[in-house]
Amino acid sequence: MNIAIQLQRGESASLQDQLFEQLRQLILVGSLKPNSRVIGTRFLADQLGVSRTTVLLAYERLISEGYLETRPAVGTFVCPTPPASPKARLRLVTPTAEAREPRLPDFDPNPGAKPICGASGEVFNFDPQASDTSHLLPRKVWIRAVRDVLESEPVGREDLPLAAGDLALRNIIVDRLAVTRGIMASPDQVIIVGGRRQACSLIAHLFLRRGDRVLVESPGDPQINGFFSARGATLLRTPVDELGLEIRRLPTGPVSLAYVTPARQNPVGGTLPQDRREALLLWARASGAYLIEDDIDSDLRYHGTTPPPLIATDRHGLVFYTGCFNMTLGDGFSLGYLIAPPAFIEPLLAIKNMAGDGGAWLEQAVLARLIADGDYDHHLRRLRKIYLERRDVLIEGLRARFGEVRLIGAELGARLTWLLPEGFPKASVLSEAARAQGVVAEPLLCEGDPLDRPCKFHDRALLLGYRGMSCDRLRAGVARLADAIEA
User: Fold this and answer.
1) Which of 261, 306, 450, 467: disulfide with 266, CB 3.0–4.6 Å?
2) Which of 373, 404, 436 is the last residue of a domain?
3) End position of a domain, from candidates 78, 95, 112
């Protein structure tokens, strides 16, 4: 798995010194726990884009100073008693005077969202939602995990909290996010949910009434936007650029909620820089908004690391952080998690309890077992290798047919955005021409052009997913797409 380390080239400290100090701090604060296995030197070097020698030397220093130890034929581990290792402290956030009290929304008699049309049956499907079931977690791994859980735990456990979810899974999620994303939270802050839409629904019950203003990204996720519209919210569509949300275009005045995707903007693909993240938090506090941070595709990063999540630097209890496992375990696996500020856990659990929805205990216990046993991380490494190869084939094919192409979002996930060159027809025109040739390549369209807030990508880009096709089919699909465009 990736680890939350940020190396800055050009700093006075060498890359080796930075790596040594950041790993040491992860051990001291408890993100890397005693006796836990640390990432292999080759994998860490690939993640950070540095030489393996740099990583090896940093590890040797940590070993010599008593923070790490090697176990022959097994690997490198955090020492059972590292020097000066203070117990990690949970920072409990007290709501500021600016924070509003939670409130129940008005009843909405028509909560249904507008359905999304699929494109099944096409020969070459670049739809980002398409998937290849041949690369899901192997059936035998699932069967073994289910058998182990059923043999070790009583069926129909009575100790499973109805609303919060399985404690073992919540503990594992907290430990994992501390290492991979730098998020220090308590298991009591974690609620197991049925995906990001349920997370948004719980939060909306707390803060949203008909007519309240909700900031969303433009272009954004049509399903999430449809949900907030159905709740009676007034959507403030704020444009994005190649790096994500345009902070200078944020609205003025009070805002109830803001749904943002800083790790990988959905759908364009930009990663929000640190300075914009800091400005977004300042704006949220000034406008009275709570932020829903959807951490999309962070487990499928191929190069480098992303800046710390908003929740990792939030000091005022304004960020609700959500993630899910369907991108890596399949669309049918809907379990996800919500990390909420401590002040709002009790009302969120009360709302979830009213729905009688604690989630199936078996799925939660099996997922916890898969992560704890290392099966999930092994599967993740396999997926990264497969998707990276497919991404490279897609990019090479586009460059071979169209020369130098402008792409966004190629660093993580299983899709990219192709910004069409000057002189090309509109993306919607090209999409229709491609469909006539048996190719599905969706145009990037903004949902309703907001007044005085034009979307720079509207109908000028194609969304190209590579999760659902093999390398050979991607090559053939790019050739068919090029023929349709040239025609």
Assistant:
1) 261
2) 373
3) 78
